[in-house]
Amino acid sequence: MQSFIRPIFLLMLIMFISACSSDARSATTISTVTIDGVEKQVIKLAAINRHNDWLFGVIKGFNNSSETYHVEASYYMNTYVSPFAFVEMVNPGRIGEFVEAVAEAELQFNIDLANGNIPDIVLFPSQMQSNTYITKGLFTDLNEFMDNDPDFDRADYLPSLFEVFDRKGGIYEIPPMFLMYGIYAKTTDVGTDVSWTLDEFSAYIETKPDAEYILASMTKREFIIKTTQYLFVNPVAGEVKFDREEFKKILAIAERFPIVPYDYSDERGNWEDYFWTDARNGDPIMLPLDIYNFHMPMLWGNSFFGEEVTWKGWPSSADSGPLFSAADYFSIMKAAENLDGGWEFLKYALNHVRVSPEMQVQLPVNLSLLEGIKNEQVKFINNSPFYNSEHDKLKSLAGLDRLMTLFKSANALKREEFTINKIIDEELGIYLSGQKSADEIIDIIENRIALYLAEQH
Questions:
Q1: How far apart are CA 87 and CA 69, in angstroms?
Q2: Which domains does the chain show, CATH number per domain?
């Protein structure tokens, strides 16, 4: 990582100088390109993670429809790598590969910035350390565009979208699509309420004393790391605040979790058999998965548990359902050559992003697009021969309504950072080995994360 520090330092220096002089730029400095005899202003897009369908479709649609602008994209990864929880569940090693790939792409991006190759707009994955760019003033506040654009209405998007990404009055990153991270559990066991406290979560798992696996194959260590970060760390706001009693509850609950993950290669030979067979028998008793479309949540429940499921949030001290999440975010560079063009493309992407219904792995933040996808599912249910009775149809339609309510109620962000995970993991190892008490490691973890966030902010 030492090789990463110097480019970052150079980029800060050069970008600071560029930002100071950006106001002096005039429209005559904006690059142009002639397309079919029409001169258009160039919008430079830097896409850190390569996408296929949705991004290419948005760029093509924008370029074809705009009489003023033309997007030229640069990609920093050769192939698209998925960071989704499904991959994490069935192949944890892929997450480490993804983090490494993002770090390499980010390094090249920083080198380009340091060399003066500054894009107008950036699309970066959630694992990229965006705090540095934001707090050093490299991304512009999108409120300036939203407040001054008569064609932009915040009410057109998920209700909590702008609240989730607010940083003391500024908004510097917006995802075009989202997903939610939740816990699938049998409705007969947990009811229909989407939120629960740590005490309620603990009480539920104690009703399943014979279950070896609680949250799929999540280990004791993984549960502590994830829950600690979700409950006590807000990397967007740069805040960390431990609740000692809640943390001790996490440690106590974690005692029910296995030390090592389930060996998918053992016995039956694959994870599908593990879930299809064992989940119905109560081991594991829950599945932590991303909710990324309208049809898979119900399919997962029927396939794995053989009955209706409730999509619960992560156990918390607050009233919170499943966590809002996103794979990628748009930001506009403050030193952009074409600020207005960058905003026009971002706005277009928010209102036109589409994914194939068959391969839908994210949902649009635009409410009208989201309603459109739901309506497609309604038509499918009403016309599908798979639903043999009116009762089955009504049950599935009610499930769609539950999901829409769930999506609109998202008010907490899932955004793990590799460095924060590593800090928790390192100190947790000391605690688990008996070298320090819970109170001692709370202080150490909180202080180390606070120092890290201070550096990022």
A1: 37
A2: 2-175+326-352 (3.40.190.10), 179-323+414-456 (3.40.190)
Instruction: Read off the DSSP letter of residue 298.
Output: H
Asked if 103 contacts 4 with a C-beta cutoff of 8 angstroms, the reply is yes
- Residues 344 and 223 sit within 8 Å (Cβ to Cβ): no
Residue 148 token pair: 């001054």
Exposure b/e, 82-115, CB count within 10 A at least 16 = b:
ebbbbbbbbeeeebeebbebbeebbbebbebbbe
Segment 164-191 mean pLDDT: 90
> In angstroms, what CA-CA distances link 443 with 48, 72, 251, 293?
36, 48, 15, 40
Q: How far apart are the first and last CA of the chain?
A: 19
The predicted pLDDT at position 312 comes to 87
CA distance 307 to 186: 7
Separation of alpha carbons 171 and 331, rounded Å: 9
- Give this prediction's pTM: 0.83
The long-range contacts involving 207-214, CB below 8 angstroms and separated by at least 24 positions, are 208/282, 208/283, 208/285, 210/282, 210/283, 211/282, 211/283, 211/284, 211/285, 212/258, 212/283, 213/258, 213/262, 213/278, 213/283, 213/284, 213/285, 214/256, 214/257, 214/284, 214/285, 214/286
Q: Are 402 and 298 in contact (CB under 8 A)?
A: no
Read off the amino acid at residue 296. M
Q: Please, are residues 353 and 369 in contact by the beta-carbon 8 Å criterion?
A: yes
- Give the closest residue to 300 by CA, choosing from 132, 196, 183: 183
Q: What is the Cα–Cα distance from 421 to 121, expressed in whole angstroms?
A: 29
Region of poorest pLDDT, from 87-96, 361-370, 409-418: 87-96
Q: Are 88 and 262 in contact (CB under 8 A)?
A: no
Amino acid at the residue 427 = E
Q: Could you give the CA distance from residue 138 to residue 136 in angstroms, rounded to a whole number?
A: 6
Asked, as a colleague might, if the bond just before 385 is cis with ω within 30 of 0, I would say: no
Quote the strand ranges of 220-264, DSSP E.
233-234, 239-240
Which pLDDT band holds residue 273 (cuts at 50, 70, 90)? low
Q: Are β-strands 177-186 and 287-291 bridged in parallel, bridged antiparallel, or unpaired?
A: antiparallel
**Which alpha helices (H) appear in 115-149, and where do they start and end?**
131-135, 143-148
355 pLDDT more than 80: no
